Amino acid sequence: RVRAAFDIKFYGRLKDDLFIVSGRPAKFRKFYQGLKHRAKPYTLELDEVSQWSIRYLDLRIFKGDGWDRTGLLDFERAFKVTSLGVPLNVRSAHPSGIHLSWRQAELSRFWRLSSDPAYYQHAKATFIGRMRKF
Predict the structure, then answer these.
(1) Per DSSP, which regions of 27-106 are E strands?
(2) For the CA atoms of 119, 122, 124, 129, what is the dihedral angle to 10 degrees?
(3) Residue 89: band (very low, low, confident or very high) from pLDDT cuts 50, 70, 90
(4) Four-residue CA torsion sign, 20, 23, 24, 27
(5) Who contacts 76 (Cβ-Cβ below 8 Å, separation ≥6)?
(6) What is the largest CA-CA distance in the chain?
(7) Is the pLDDT of residue 81 over 90?
(8) Is the dihedral of CA 13, 82, 52, 76 positive or negative?
(9) What pLDDT sits at residue 23?
């Protein structure tokens, strides 16, 4: 009932990170003010609001070609500019299987974090480019 009253299309949460899709900015502002009030003694911080694209955790969620075709949001792996991108050191005490599999596990994760094969290819190229520096 609350979601319908404030035209909330989607409400998702991962620990202390919220992702909310709203149909009407004015109703969202009222919803957010109520959320802030109920969150006390904690303080809510609104990181990003946009009609087109946002970053949430390690994703960029946006209205792209998929949105145009289906009405569903697109998503892709977002790399932070400030990220060091340091790979797992070969001299670490991790078992050899970890050293052999973590790169492939990352690429598999990028696939799951991409709504389109082109977005996966871009994430893969970025990852490989960063790994070549080490």
Answers:
(1) 53-56, 59-62, 74-77
(2) -160
(3) confident
(4) negative
(5) 59, 60, 113, 114, 115, 116, 119, 120, 122, 123
(6) 56
(7) no
(8) negative
(9) 87
